[in-house]
């Protein structure tokens, strides 16, 4: 099929590349010139495992362009996968969706199906269908279908190709037929429903996962008060199939481009309908507090942060991605800088993006060893394998004061005790060196 994709971010590029790998002719439209230049040179502008190789393998079926008119003119299917960031009042900003819709309406010369991949509030697809009915060319019928995306950054290619379910929100048999043809060969359960329900499946899923994270984070905070171990609690809970082990790891809260904005958007939408979504409101509040948990811990060890040398290990909101949107690192670094700390950061992939954000306000280390050398404290914010495999004893030898505040529970408590460091993590016992300096 001739497919066009509006937007080549984490969702759009993965969608385009994966569909091209299944034999479709895919034209990806991107408005960002820098991203487009990289894509044309065969370089994915985002870090996503397996993406570069699949993009190279599927090159014969892939075109990258900013000529939206050419891309949409005769496309059979047009995916919209542009960003839907938070608007400022909590609601989803649909500017980019409507920009793409205007471009499609102005360009489509034959009937087509527009498929909404972006996460959009309930009712958006219906409104878009009306928009196209008014604004598309004469005799050009544009169907709109919702096909929310459930991939996770860091495993996006694998997730897309092995989705646990496909959701088709359609209002006509022809739109369903088109989506079935797009995904021919994908062997997953397909849920066919109306667009509003499809849109809600996406919001409800993300909100539930955010709730699960905030719940285990609150349990972790109580574990610290009562001397229980949250990792064992999670393990014990997760073995119960009704609960499941996923999204049950305590830490410094969720970040990224989805959960923060999707919880706010659903909360806003409920309020708009005069309904208070109390569970989601609580999840948002818990997360806000959790994100500064390590700073609060740091203040217990040092009355003032001013003048401290602090290492920050891991900057992305999760491992496997270079995405810094809503990453706890950004907020934590900002607080540290405001309070007068000298910050050195390390991350295996995100340094170029962090440099664009912080410039020379922070130091950049190319190894974990260099990042922690001579520091008074170290904050661990992403559970990269390189960090999890780091020899804890090196902290003691390299740091001025070996104080590790771990927001991702990367290390074993016994190993921390043997290393002779102060190790304070989330929802677990604090480890301190034995008073005589020997390893506890
Ligand atoms: N990132 C995820 O893990 C994920 C997962 C599931 C769903 N989603 C949803 O998918 C949507 C896209 O998310 P993302 O993370 O890929 O966003 P992104 O910001 O990484 O990518 C959006 C891209 O669209 C481009 N763009 C904007 N307007 C355009 C236009 N008119 N024509 C062509 N390109 C245009 C931007 O330049 C950008 O490259 C959002 O609604 C998000 O909530 C994201």
TrEMBL record:
Pfam families: UDPG_MGDP_dh, UDPG_MGDP_dh_C, UDPG_MGDP_dh_N. One of its GO terms (molecular function) is UDP-glucose 6-dehydrogenase activity. The keyword Oxidoreductase applies. Substrate binds at residues 202, 247-251, 255, 318. Its EC number is 1.1.1.22. Residues 311-413 form the UDP-glucose/GDP-mannose dehydrogenase C-terminal domain. One of its GO terms (biological process) is UDP-glucuronate biosynthetic process. The active site is at 258 (nucleophile). SUPFAM superfamilies: 6-phosphogluconate dehydrogenase C-terminal domain-like, NAD(P)-binding Rossmann-fold domains, UDP-glucose/GDP-mannose dehydrogenase C-terminal domain. InterPro entries: 6-PGluconate_DH-like_C_sf, NAD(P)-bd_dom_sf, UDP-Glc/GDP-Man, UDP-Glc/GDP-Man_DH_C, UDP-Glc/GDP-Man_DH_C_sf, UDP-Glc/GDP-Man_DH_dimer, UDP-Glc/GDP-Man_DH_N, UDPglc_DH_bac. SMART domains: UDPG_MGDP_dh_C. Keywords: NAD, Oxidoreductase. NAD(+) binds at residues 35, 84, 119, 261, 325. Pathway: Nucleotide-sugar biosynthesis; UDP-alpha-D-glucuronate biosynthesis; UDP-alpha-D-glucuronate from UDP-alpha-D-glucose: step 1/1. Belongs to the UDP-glucose/GDP-mannose dehydrogenase family. PANTHER family: UDP-GLUCOSE 6-DEHYDROGENASE TUAD (PTHR43750:SF3). This is UDP-glucose 6-dehydrogenase. It comes from Sporobacter termitidis DSM 10068.
């Amino acid at each position: 099929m001739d497919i066009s994709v509006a937007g080549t971010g984490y969702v759009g590029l993965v969608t385009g590349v994966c569909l091209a790998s299944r034999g479709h002719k895919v034209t990806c439209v991107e408005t960002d010139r820098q991203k487009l230049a990289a894509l044309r040179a065969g370089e994915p502008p985002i870090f996503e495992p397996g993406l570069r190789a699949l993009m190279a393998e599927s090159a014969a079926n892939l075109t990258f362009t900013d000529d939206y008119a050419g891309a949409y003119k005769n496309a059979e299917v047009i995916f919209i996968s542009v960003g839907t960031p938070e608007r400022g009042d909590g609601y989803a900003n649909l500017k980019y969706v409507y920009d793409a819709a205007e471009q499609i309406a102005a360009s489509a010369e034959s009937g087509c199906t527009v498929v909404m991949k972006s996460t959009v509030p309930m009712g958006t697809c219906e409104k878009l269908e009306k928009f196209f009915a008014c604004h598309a060319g004469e005799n050009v019928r544009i169907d709109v279908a919702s096909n929310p995306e459930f991939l996770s950054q860091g495993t996006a290619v694998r997730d897309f190709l092995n989705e646990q379910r496909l959701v088709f929100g359609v209002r006509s048999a022809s739109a369903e037929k088109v989506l079935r043809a797009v995904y021919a060969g994908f062997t997953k359960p397909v849920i066919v429903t109306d667009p509003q329900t499809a849109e809600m499946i996406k919001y409800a899923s993300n909100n539930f996962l955010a709730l699960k994270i905030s719940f285990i984070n609150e349990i972790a905070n109580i574990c610290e008060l009562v001397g229980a171990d949250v990792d064992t609690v999670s393990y014990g809970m997760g073995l119960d199939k009704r609960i499941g082990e996923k999204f049950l790891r305590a830490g410094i809260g969720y970040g990224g481009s989805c959960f923060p904005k999707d919880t706010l958007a659903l909360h806003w939408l409920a309020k708009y309908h005069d309904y208070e979504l109390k569970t989601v409101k609580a999840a948002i509040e818990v997360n806000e507090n959790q994100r500064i948990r390590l700073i609060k811990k740091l203040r217990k060890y040092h009355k003032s942060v001013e003048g401290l040398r602090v290492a920050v290990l891991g900057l992305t909101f999760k491992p496997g991605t270079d995405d810094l949107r809503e990453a706890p690192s950004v907020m934590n670094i900002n607080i540290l800088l405001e309070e007068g700390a000298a910050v050195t950061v390390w991350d295996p992939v995100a340094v170029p993006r962090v440099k664009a954000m912080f410039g020379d306000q922070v130091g950049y280390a190319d190894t974990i060893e260099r990042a922690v050398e001579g520091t008074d404290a170290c904050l661990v914010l992403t559970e990269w394998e390189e960090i999890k495999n780091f020899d804890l004893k090196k902290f003691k030898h390299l740091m001025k004061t070996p104080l590790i505040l771990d927001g991702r529970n990367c290390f074993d408590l016994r190993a921390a005790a043997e290393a002779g460091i102060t190790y304070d993590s989330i929802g677990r016992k604090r480890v301190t060196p034995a008073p005589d300096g020997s390893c506890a």
